[in-house]
Every structure is written in C-alpha cells, then in structure tokens.
C-alpha cells in the first residue's frame, strides 16, 4: 500500500494505526477514499504498506467488507466509554510491530496520551513515528512532541451523501429529541465550550458524543446504526451552529 494503496515502492515501509474517531471525527468502517488520502499524505521515500483500523463496533463485525492490506480491529465499548479497549489494542499492535522488525515507521492517527509510553518505546528502538494533523480532539502537546513528522491527510470529515433518506422517521424524531435533551441538560458554559470546539474542528468532544449516543439508543431501545450516528452528529453540530 504505497501512494497507489497496493504496492510497496523503494524507501521506508510504514504501517498506519488509524482510529477513525480521531481522523474523521466519527467512528466509521475503512474506505478506499480515506485510505488513499492517508497514503497520499506520506512524505517522499515513505510507503504506506499496511493499515490497522480500530473500531468500537457493537454489531456483527464479520459484516465489514474486506479491503486488501487493511486489518480491522473491532474493540468492545468498555463500561466507562473512555476508549480504553481501543488504546490497549493499539498499544499491543505497537509492541508487535517493534519486535517484528518488518516496518521502518508507523503513522498514528490518534493523540490519546495513553499511547505516549508505547510510542516512546517504539522510537527508542529506532522506529520512525508520524502523527496526523486531521484529528477530532484537542491537540496534546506531549503527543505532538513525540512525532518525528506530522502528515495531513485530506479526508472527508462530514457526512457523505444524503443519509437522511436512510434514516426512518422514528429515528429522525428520536435524534431530534436526543439533541434537544442534551441542550436542556447542559449549562451555558458547557454549550459555549462545545460551540467553540465545533467551530475549530471536525467531530465532537468524546464525552458529548457518548452522551448523545446514549440518549438516542435509550429512546430507540437499541444501538444506533452507522447512518443514524452520522446524522445525529451532523444535526448536533448544526444545532450548535444555529443552523437548525
């Protein structure tokens, strides 16, 4: 998986550890457009030949389609909903990459500082470590100092296509209700903080995202589908921007 996504050219071979929440602002299965964007952002002499894609997935993950050179890591959503299982899976893969010696470098699409020790260990053993500028969270300065270089994939961070048509009237009504309830529960300071976040970057703060998903699934009596989650997040952003 080099610039053309499927072959290694001359130069250093890299593997990418991608958390779509950090890269795209939402949990989503891997797709060729995003993968090509990451590969195209690699500097000269660096070939992206393998991708690990981490996904909090409540459904049957065997329904995810297979993409060459991409390994999907389904991770359980833990009780605290703080992404610990995602971090543990990434750290485990980093250890295997370091001991395997197959790659010269790793691209990490995450700024979760719980990965810092694993990244420092990888660097101490000679692995180059790149970060991604496209992220849905606040930038942690400790993490930024760890990266040898930052790449900036040109990814689609919003909802692609007309997803509203794929969401039932009941789900659309519940999405609207969940957003309204969040605004009712939040104080003025919290609302303003979220508005500033949305104005500056894609995605949502993880605690806000988790609360919205809980409110929606509670009223639906089931987990929201991928399309319903994407509509929920987009409609919430629009509500904070005064568009709805």
Features:
elongated; 244 residues; 2 domains; 9 helices; alpha/beta; Rossmann fold
Describe the structure.
This protein is 43% helix and 15% strand. With 244 residues, it is an alpha/beta fold. The chain has a six-stranded parallel β-sheet with strand order 3-2-1-4-5-6. Helix 5 (141-146) links the parallel strand 5 and strand 6 (149-151).
Helix content: 40-55%
Number of β-strand runs = 6
On the 0 to 100 scale, the average pLDDT is 81
Arrangement of strands in the largest sheet = 3-2-1-4-5-6
Please compute the radius of gyration using only Cα atoms.
Answer: 18 Å
Task: Work out the strand percent.
Answer: 15-25%
Q: What is the CATH T-level topology of the largest domain?
A: Rossmann fold
Structural class: alpha/beta
Largest sheet: 6 strands, parallel
CATH-level-4 superfamily name of the largest domain? 5'-nuclease
What's the CATH architecture of the largest domain? 3-Layer(aba) Sandwich
| Structural shape | elongated
Spans of at least 5 consecutive residues whose pLDDT stays below 50 are 4-8, 158-162
By DSSP (H or I, 4+ residues per run), the number of helices equals: 9
CATH class membership of the largest domain: Alpha Beta
Number of domains: 2
- The first-to-last residue Cα distance is 42 Å
Helix-strand pattern, N to C? EHHEEHEHEHEHHHH
Summarize it.
With 244 residues, the chain is of the alpha/beta class. The chain has helices spanning 20-24, 32-40, 84-100, 116-124, 141-146, 169-185, 188-200, 206-220, 226-240, and strands spanning 12-18, 46-56, 70-75, 105-109, 128-132, 149-151.
